[in-house]
Amino acid sequence: MESRVWRRSLVAPLALAPLLAGGLSAQSTLTVGPGGYPEVLDALTAAQPGDVIVLQPGTYLPFDLSIGVRIVAPGGATITTPPGGGGMPSVYQIQPPAGQQATLVGLTFRNNPLYPPPEPAVSLHIAGNVVFADCLFHNWADWGGLATVCNGDVQFDRCEWNCVWDCMSVVGGRVTANHCRLRAYRNDTYGGWEPTCLVASGGDIRLNFCDLQGSGAGPQSYIGSPAVRLSGTARLAVADSQVLGGSSITWASIAITNGSVHPVLHARSTIQGGTGLLLMVPYYVFGPGPGFDGPSMAAALVGGLGSVGGPRVGAIYEGAAITPWNGIVAMVLSFDRHTAAPVPFAAQPIHFDPATSVVYAWGLPNGYSVFPNTGVFLWQTPVLAPSLFGEQFWLHTLAWDGATFQVGPTFGGLVR
What we know:
By secondary structure, this protein is mainly beta. It is built from 2 helices and 31 strands. The protein is globular, with a radius of gyration of 22 Å.
């Protein structure tokens, strides 16, 4: 269905100029669950690019995704392996082709909890242009395996990881996490393993309003693990977040171990290691360990946060951008999330096409910020109509610093 009605409903109340014609290709809605397809893979086999696949509450088998569709579970749905799987971790590919975007909303990915025998992890290898929103990655499998491995242009909004092994690996591409929570827990069955929230050997990673904590010590590993390990060419920027190392039985841990060739950029964040000497004589506790092991640098990163529930039918979607106090802020509206591309007017790559996007709101930050030289710019949409279910829009943050536009978080996503 061409999205001009949707576009008018969002744009017209703000008297913006009409968007260029073009829009989305025809789309259908496919249902998985009672009365529909029995499994997600069955619906994917019948789907076309741009289609919406709606999952009813229930438990479904994991799937490979090789097409740009939108998968949404309004009431939640669990993706897990069948009991009795055993063996090595199960790897599933989430990889739409070039020029297409895949969106997954409201899904829980987890290993089957039935034990014995040991069940394999559900490990997602993600490439291409992919967005996850309100998803849970729960890997409590003895057979290990990373919950998510990223090598594409990937965005996680309001997602959570609870894992006994590393939560996320980034080997390349551009990965953004907005308002996410990552927890790594000690797996005492295999002593010496130090699971982390994020391990990266390449790619550009950006954390906005995220909460990360490394694993606490266990009987076989006395020092807590860092929340982040970087190596190779990985780049990390952290804004408005908390990054903590795990607590230790002996010496205090570090929050971020940076062995990459780039410094960690950080702004308005708490980054510190875990405490030490929790259980050994004498009974006292060391304070938190250092934030960084390796190069780091404070930076003027543009931040922000959208509505906790994301865009929802019958509600206003609103948020705030955190920017330099004396600059101009622009929220650019697009109906597609493009892969990141450099443009002359922005200091960092952007995720929208300037030829088919419009400035939704702009102005000066109000200056009400507890951080020096920063202000807050508030924005909101009209109430989102029921006809918008399954559609998506994106609001891209740009902040003029006197020389160029600094690029901040991208808000929005699929309306549910």
